[in-house]
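ok trying this again, last paste got cut off
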Amino acid sequence: MTKELKTETLNLRVSPGTKLALKGIAERENRSMVNALECLVSDYYKRHEVEMPLATKKGGRGARVKINQ
């Protein structure tokens, strides 16, 4: 049995308008911007009836991340 990774770091560059829009969504939903983004991605997969990939890490520290699709 494999476990999904708890957290990953993702640095994004977005336009100021996109950041402001995400901030607005987060505030409206009473979420953090990161959680709002996670929800938006999850909703995308649900709307398109596609199974969301599960990222797992096998091995020790620094092991490659495998995306199961």
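PB: full thing came through this time. The helical segments are 16-28, 33-47.
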